[in-house]
Amino acid sequence: MAAVRTAPERATRRRRTLVVLGAVTAAAVAAFLTVGVTGAWDYALEMRGRRLAAMAVVAVAVALSTVLFQTVTNNRILTPEIMGFDRLFVLVQTAGVFLLGSSTLASADPRLRFAVDTVALVAFAAVLYRSLFSRTERDVYVLVLLGVVLGTVFTSLTLLVSRLIDPNEFLTLQDLLFASFTSVDQGLLGLTAVVVGVVAVGVWRHIPLLDVVALGRDTAVGLGVEHRRVVDRVLLVVAVLVAVSTALVGPITFLGLLVANLARQLLGTHRHAWVLPGAALLALLALAGGQTVLEQVLGLNSSLSIVVGLVGGIVFIALLVREPRQ
Amino acid sequence: MIEFRSVSKSFGDTRVVDDVSLTIPTGGITSLVGANGAGKSTLLSIAARLLPADRGRVLVDGLDVATTPGPVLARRLAVLRQENAMSVRLTVRELVAFGRFPHSGGRLTAEDHRLVDEAMAWFELDPLADRHLDQLSGGQRQRAYVAMVMCQGTDHVLLDEPLNNLDMRHAVQMMRMLRGMADELGRTVVLVVHDVNVASCYSDRIVALREGQLVAEGPTADLMTPELLRGVFDVEVEVHELAGRRIGVPWS
After folding, report:
1. Option in B72, B78, B93 nearest A222 (CB)
2. Among A25, A48, A164, B87, fewest CB within 10 Å belongs to which?
3. B6 and B52 in one domain?
4. Based on the domain organization, do B1 and B66 belong to the same domain?
5. CA–CA separation, B98 vs B78, rounded Å?
6. pLDDT tens digit string along A227-266?
């Protein structure tokens, strides 16, 4: 058996891991901003800076939403994306275009559109996922299956609705919906940054509570946590965060799964005070570093979500296969 | 004091707890005994507000468990369930320290640290303090969980099958520690036990359940009779006196 480390030794190690992670992430960010700039530096830095800001907002949103979701559902495999949250958001957006017409939407403030879509998503998610998770002890395989089915249903409905839309309007719709890191709306970026900032502060203030919730429902109730209320609020926060990241850059299904599990592994703990910043740094590292490598080294454009999907999918299957051995 | 007032609970068509009214007095160890499926664990879970009752109320020191705010109740009543598989990785000391959450909200004071140390020492966990729970044997892990519950510092402690997975030596050790909690610390300990002789040797009072109904309750000596045990377990039991303790021996 490996030597047992004392609590202070573990804390020192974790702090060092987090510092190293921060330094590597900073290097990736610097590389993203500076590598391969040709011509006017002002312009390049401004453009890249805006994309970097979007990445930072998405990184924090994805890390927070995944870790929180896994805490209240008591598992390490399911993420909001695997349960179909992000595709539900795309469906809500598409349904919005169908019902209101693209001309109304295109002229509307993107921030207003985002707010309306988010409220719709939160309402849907509240009904749908509360009924799924309120029942105690669900088999994780049943939930994965449900998530896959729900995701497929949402995608099919989105396709159906987009077929019903006038072809000309559909082009506008595509423009609206399929955002990526290369085309981020500036007004939306400011709004989502504020939303994510407020949520992050709120979450940070409840970290001890989250640590208790992670112990499981019965233990948390025994320790005086109003479990139902906490889970409801967390699912609400998760829905908002997924809406933020999906609205900004579209679905990146497996990023959250990757960074949440990697953060726990690297830091050797489930404590939110360590895992949340660790996961956020890893997400930013994956986005900024990955984009730099793809664009500058391999000369490819905007295929990061495919790479994340490939790596994340493999990790997902590995986790799923390993699960019963616990 | 824990009062059950006409408590009923059904799962589907099966009535698991059937109109139970019962008062568990302050102090000492009370054991809930009965055959499998008699409703012992369900009754305990209702008292610990882990399950809602269909009908009836449970009062802990006069507070209705269904309506009292969680943190208030968590300072009066602590509970340990039978299954404690956790998806998180914790050291023993971290787990025990969670017992102070109802008091300090997760930011431990010097007093909290002292109480954690005390609970660790009481359950002889000091050498294991920095081990992860998954590195422990079943008996050590069970001790760590009970230490967390004790560390919660509540007057009432409810334990569902605390002897699960424990061999004879560790079972005796656990019961001695629980006896100490009741006698030296003045806690009211309520246990679910399936071995009636453990209940007989270590508890002050016994509550006997059968098919969700209360059969009898009272001081241990009054309940350890062949007639009563036959009624509860549906099997002939001889009761012998051994070294001042009543031991039931089933035969058929």
Report:
1. B78
2. A164
3. yes
4. yes
5. 12
6. 888 988 898 899 899 888 888 887 787 889 989 999 998 8
Question: Domain of B128?
Answer: 77-153
Tell me the C-alpha to C-alpha distance, in Å, between residue A285 and each of A182, A289, B75, B80.
17, 5, 44, 42
Helix/strand/coil for A14: helix
Interface of A with B (CB under 8 A): 1, 4-7, 10, 74-76, 207-209, 211-212, 214-216, 218-219, 221-227, 264, 268-270, 326
H runs (alpha helix) in chain B: 40-47, 70-74, 92-98, 101-104, 110-122, 138-151, 168-183, 196-202, 220-223, 226-233
Domains, in order of start, for chain A: 40-251 (1.10.3470.10)
- Interface check for B93 against chain A (CB to CB < 8 A): the answer is yes
Per-residue pLDDT 10s for chain B (252 aa) are: 999 999 999 998 899 999 999 999 999 999 999 998 899 999 999 999 999 999 999 999 999 999 999 999 999 999 998 877 777 889 999 999 999 999 998 889 999 999 999 999 988 999 999 999 988 888 889 999 999 999 999 999 999 999 987 888 889 989 999 999 999 999 999 999 988 999 999 999 999 999 999 999 999 989 999 999 998 988 888 899 888 888 988 876
ipTM metric: 0.91
DSSP-based three-state secondary structure for B119: helix
- Residue B211 neighbours by CB distance under 10 Å: 15
User: Which member of A4, A74, A270 has the closest CB to residue B89?
Assistant: A270
Domain shared by B131 and B200, yes or no: no
Mutation site, A9, A221, A274, interface B, largest B CB count within 10 A? A221
Percent helix, percent strand, percent coil in chain B, to nearest 5: 35, 30, 35
| Candidate from A218, A224, A268 with C-beta closest to B50 | A218
Pick B70's closest partner by Cβ from A4, A5, A224: A224
Residue B172 inside a domain? The answer is no
Interface A:B, Cβ pairs < 8 A: 79
B145 in a structural domain: yes
**A227 to chain B, closest Cα gap in Å:** 9
Q: Do B130 and A4 touch (CB under 8 A)?
A: yes
Q: Cβ separation of B89 and A269 shorter than 8 Å?
A: yes
Question: Which of B153, B176, B199 is the last residue before a domain boundary?
Answer: B153
User: What residue spans of chain A are helical by DSSP H?
Assistant: 7-34, 41-73, 85-100, 102-107, 110-133, 140-164, 167-177, 186-205, 207-213, 217-222, 227-249, 255-267, 272-284, 290-292, 304-322
User: Looking at B127, B153, B179, which one is the last position of a domain?
Assistant: B153
Query: Does residue B58 lie within any of the structural domains?
Result: yes
Total domains, chain B: 2
